[in-house]
Amino acid sequence: MTMRTRALQTARGTLWASLVLAAGAAAISIRAQAEPSRTRPAGVEQPSVTMERFLAPGPESARLSRQVGRWDVVMTIRPSPDAAPSWRKAWSPSAR
Description:
Elements: H1 3-34, H2 47-55, H3 59-65, E1 72-77, E2 86-91
Antiparallel strand pairs: 1-2
């Protein structure tokens, strides 16, 4: 068998393998589109409904809303136990 014949056989094999894989992928895609959507079990919500409920304000928001306002803070920072302290002042944007 010559090198050219062997190369042609390899190319044909690769082409057939590619065609088989493409046909399989197309069949899977068509089947997924044709299947009716599965219903969820009772008590299981759609993900969007769950996320909306998760993002809605809860009792924690009410407790935190009492702390809304102007804040001035002085922070003492020690990068390590033996380092000299460093002070920083911060404030809420509405405080200035």
